[in-house]
Structures are given as structure tokens and as C-alpha cells.
Amino acid sequence: MVLVYFLIIVKWSPITSALASFYTSLALSLLRRDVRRNPLSVPNGLVEGGKEITSIIIAACAAGIIVGILTYTGITLKFGYLLMSASFGIQELALLYTALLTILLGFGLPTTAAYIMASAVAIPALSLLNIKGLVAHMFIFHFATRSSLTPPVALAAYAAANIAKTSPMRVGLEAVKLGIITFIIPFVFVFKPELLLVVKEAPVMSLAWLILIAIIAASSISIGIAGYMKDHIPTIQRAVFMVGGFILLYSGSTIVDAALAAIILLLIIYHRVKAAPRNV
Length: 280
Prior knowledge:
Helices cover 76% and strands 0% of the residues. By secondary structure, it is mainly α. It has two domains: 56-197, no CATH class; 203-280.
């Protein structure tokens, strides 16, 4: 938690953050019993980490070249103005366009390279919407990672399909269905930046309430989409889970949030009790 405070709140530089994270991870690894028994596992792990990061460095270098071209030709600024024109100044529509572009740019790339590519184009556009700092970067980062499971490319779906011996497209569509909440959360970050712990003046109790409501809402939407929790859920109750979850995410009323959260929790308890084995 101390490290997270310095990285996010104090806003250390990227190099300082990377070095601090490295040495913190190294120190924490020494607390593990298996590492203390085999000290050579530390240098061996560093060597393996160096090998693993090579592919990421190559992809990031290639992405850096493309980012440089986009920056020096002014395409990023042109895209921002084009985005504003296409969305008619409507923030929600502009965010949707940005999310689609980020997923498109991330097709076939590892997470780091996808984020670098997308941020070079999308961050200037988001700044025109007054969405800046960590909020803008987390919005881009989330959608850059979603490109790995979004058809038609969906590299993660191809890997999973190979294991499951089934169609990659089918796996990709199922992944999008079950992970739909991960496509919604970035929008919530924009409208409720307190969830990213970047609003310093936010009261602790208010922040805790927002986080609790967000967890209940995300769980509710996921349950409604899956349609299963210990047993199959009727269609009407699935609709209650999904609609209630969406309202919780975007509602600003404490009374509405409390009422919907109570209904959702009662439904969850009902299904868990119903599916519990009974002793005869």
C-alpha cells in the first residue's frame, strides 16, 4: 500500500516507479520460504525475466516508431478534432468511438505495445473532452487489453480454443459475453474517477461506499449475463440483475443505490440458499 501511494498519489516518474517496484518485488521475494531455501532462484529468476521481456521490448520499439510517425505528422491532433466532429461533442459517444479505436489498434499486439499505440492516438483526443491524467490512461489501458479477447483477432481466444479443441470465434464471442463488464468499467472510471483513488478530497466513507456499490454492480451484471449461479436463473431475474447493475454503476443517488443493492443482495442470497444441499 505504501508503494501504491507513492506511485499514484505522489506521482513518481516512470523510471523511479519502475525501479521502486523492482526493488520492492525483489525484497518481498526474500520473504518466501522456498526462496530462502534456494537463494539461487533469485538470480535465475532475473535471467528468465530478462529473456521474457525481450519480446515486449521489441514490440514496444516497433510501436514507438509508429507513435513517432503519428506524433510528428500531426495525425493525433487531427484525429482528436475528427472525433469531436463525429461525436457532435457528446462525451459518451466520443468515448465509445475512442474505445472502438483502441481495441482496433490493439489487435494482434501484446498489452504493452497495444497501450503505447492506442495512447499516442487516443490520449490527445480525450484531452479535448477534458479527460486527462490517470483517468484517461486507465480508460485506454483497459480497452487495449480487451483486444486480446475481442473477435475477429482475439489472440487469447485462439490460445484457449486450441486447449479446448473448439472454434476460436466461438471462444472469442463467449469471452466477450462473460467479460462484458470489463468493457463497461472504463466508462465508470470516467464518470466516477474516485474509484481510481485520484480524487484527494473524497471522504473515506464516501469512497468506501462507491467501491462497495461498484463491486455489487459488477457482480450483478456478470450474474445476469451468465444466467447461472449455483443453478439456472429465470429470465426476469436475469433482467433485474443486469438492469439493476447498470443503474448502480451510473446512479448518483445514495437512496437508489442502497435500495437496488439490497434487492440484488437478497436475490443472491435467495439463489444460494435455494441451491444449498438439504439434509433429509
